[in-house]
Amino acid sequence: MGDRGKALVGLGVFILLVTFPLWGRLAGGQPVPGRDDLVYPDPAKATDCIEARDWMTANHMNLLNRWRDDLVRRGVTEYVSSSGKRYYPSLTKTCLDCHDDRDKFCNRCHDYAHVTPTCWECHTTPGGGA
Amino acid sequence: MNVLVALGAAVGVFAAGMAGGALGLGWLFGVVIPGLALLVFLGGLAVKVWDWVSTPVPFRIPTTCGQQTSLDWIKPNKLENPHTGIQALGRMALEVLCFRSLLRNTKAEMVQGRRLAYRTSLGLWLGAMLMHWSLLVILIRHLRLMTNPVPAFVSFLEAADGFLEIGLPAVFVTTVTFLAGVTYLLARRFTNPQVRYISLAGDYFPLFLLLGIGLSGVWMRHFGKVDIAAIKELMLSLFHFSPAVPEGISPVFYGHLFLASVLLAYIPFSKIAHMAGIFLSPTRNLANNNRAVRHVNPWDYPVKVHTYEEYEEELRDKMVAAGLPVEKPLEKE
Ligand code: HEM
What we know:
The complex is a heterodimer.
Chain A: H1 2-18, H2 20-24, H3 53-74, E1 79-80, E2 86-87, H4 91-98, H5 106-113
Antiparallel strand pairs in A: 1-2
Chain B: H1 2-22, H2 26-53, H3 85-98, E1 106-111, E2 115-120, H4 123-141, H5 152-161, H6 173-191, H7 193-197, H8 201-223, H9 228-239, H10 251-266, H11 274-277, H12 308-321
Antiparallel strand pairs in B: 1-2
The complex binds protoporphyrin IX containing FE.
Protoporphyrin IX containing FE binds next to helix 4, helix 6, helix 8, helix 9 and helix 10 of chain B.
């Protein structure tokens, strides 16, 4: 029955690998899934983002990409939002002016979704956040 | 016809997932179906494997194409004709990791009008390698959506895979190679008349599923944009056995997930079961040592025999009386 034993060991290993997310959390994962609460800008300062919130959640990286190309390559220094407001297309000067605590906003979400933008290797954060 | 059936089925699956997402059936398509699919996948494969290992192999039947180990002065081909378990393991590893047998794929052609010529054809090997290895990397990368904190090997793979840093979010190399591989494998079945002739709906269907999954994945990452954080919440809640379906997940995601669920549940009952079958193929996983080691047929049962000695013992007096020769003379009284 040696062969049968080997095949069953193989099957067992395969099942363990496939179910990694199930038992992987036992080895150090959080007991409850969830991310730390995001800290939004002070409502006295702003109540809305540049575009609608749901759109921003999903598309903010595309907006940044567009701003970058607009400013650096085409010299466009103004972004007009769909609600008609005007913004200077800058990561640090505009986004982080409202979202001034990057650790408690951008990073909390990115750590959870496991996104590691390389932007901060060059761009600064007001207040010198990580 | 086979193509249309398979294409229709795959498109139908995707449309059903999209519709489910749009109609707010997040529970069905995000929790119940993926959970069932995983159970069917693992259970189905386990049953298959149990069935295979329970089938006795009466004789060693490896397929070989090299010199067998025999006399000392004849050089054996250890890989093509493995003589020991380790050698068989080596051949197996090369097969599973490098698809070595696909390197033998040939193509028949008429040259100069009427001479048949065969030549090596490596397209299938390349396409299969691209597709399978990219698929593995993509699946490991997907763990970022299912674990918290994300293990280091996933981060490493993600960084290595996105090293081109093209676009935002960055395009992964394996996304491109995966789609290229699947597209080639499909195109091969369409354009090569011999292959097309033997292709059934069951050959096209998994390819269409993979293509659909890949395209919807690319759509979510680079074009349509979805709320990744919400999707991760859903997946984590599933793996913590406390399912909760967050609002606002794009229907495309449910299409992607339903396609993946159908593929998973389909695997044990289709040609894709080769992922387990390859390990249990007696033509591949056995050492060719029939001439060196005695293999007893497992379904041999003790046969009731009547030996010549017993026969003579029983009838010796009659044989002697009839003048027949006997081995042992009659005992004198
Ligand atoms: C056979 C299984 C699957 C295959 C072949 C597959 C393939 C892909 C591919 C090729 C992409 C494009 C981006 C990339 O390469 O990462 C993608 C993205 C994605 N997949 Fe899958 N997938 C599968 C299963 C799943 C499952 C089970 C989920 C459930 C969580 C899922 C969720 C996603 C999401 C959310 C994205 C977008 C990622 C982003 O925007 O960064 N996929 N998939």
